């Protein structure tokens, strides 16, 4: 048909476009305009920039992967209109849809278009039905030097968040970069002592391009953003980490990998803060590392030596203490909300609590990764764990399967150990409800 590409099977390439269909006079033949003539005509009308003139292989590969994701006219039209709106490009108002080859050319010419497309796809219905195709498209973007890491809206939002911080402290971004990438040769402008507000865009692009293949997992930019967040005020820290979480989810990064970088950034900042703190009172310190807490004896250090806290009220005095990594809460404690004041808490055991019904109090424990809930018979809702980063959960004794099924939204949970199941419970049904979780059952 007229306007279709003319494909040359010998070379596996497009050699022109069809300009007239077969006629009775020339049965079986079509008229075509060769690629050189089309390019010259486009140049004559000042629109030559919309013709792809680079290597054909990446374009062909991108077209192939787009075809598996944008499978029909309706999907391609929706994708094209989203890109047009994001990049302020005109598009037809009718029901027509571009082909995957046309979309591929646009994406190859706009460095943030592929990330913007995957952001749109991941936020809609395509994510669930075409997970593998979307993942391949994201991997193509990350491995190719032709595409930026960030989508257009992600890039704009990051610059908006970094701008007031850089304006207040131009040394913040270089310091965070040196801490997050200690063995990496940083490119300009990050190699200097300051990155002012006007140089932020160049710095972000430099981090997007920075090759840290020797440090697999989290890209350089996301590592540095974690470093900036750890050095910022509470509101900026929360906003930057929310941005990082969203980008890492779009890229398909394991939460555990980002959580490790976040913990490293916090540890570095806490170590720096301690090194700059004034001399401390030589009397026994209350900055403990491992605690137990039960209703009778209160909060007590488990290791010999340093100090002892004997009342639950003393927990509030530890607010912001970055040395509390493990905690055991024993007995029917009426309020677990003080746990949110322990920013480094990673391992928690809740035992013998006969009043606890849910785990909502743990939502603010950002670094909590391991949780044990033992002998808490009234717990009937574990859904709050979906809003935490808990990776390992152990519950005992026997617990109702319906309670365990409330863990379905907990996307970071990977290991569930259960101290027995009711006799009429089917472990296979539970595994089907929690497909991403490795389930261990013991008597």
Kindly report the name of the CATH homologous superfamily of the largest domain.
Answer: Ribonuclease Inhibitor
Instruction: Determine the strand fraction and express it as a percent band.
Output: 5-15%
| Molecular shape | globular
Biggest sheet: strand arrangement: 5-4-6-7-8-9-10-11
SSE pattern: EEEHHHHHHHHHHHHHEEEEEEHEHE
Report Rg: 28 Å
Overall CATH architecture of the largest domain = Alpha-Beta Horseshoe
Number of helices, where a helix is a run of at least 4 consecutive DSSP H or I residues: 15
CATH class designation of the largest domain = Alpha Beta
Low-confidence stretches: 279-291, 301-310
Kindly, what is the distance between the CA atoms of the first and last residues, rounded to a whole number of angstroms?
A: 70 Å
CATH topology of the largest domain: Leucine-rich repeat, LRR (right-handed beta-alpha superhelix)
Query: Mean pLDDT, nearest integer?
Result: 78
Number of strands: 11
What is the count of structural domains?
3
Which class do the helix and strand fractions yield? alpha/beta
Give the proportion of residues in helices: 25-40%
* Major sheet description: 8 strands, mixed
Question: What's the assembly state of these chains?
Answer: single chain
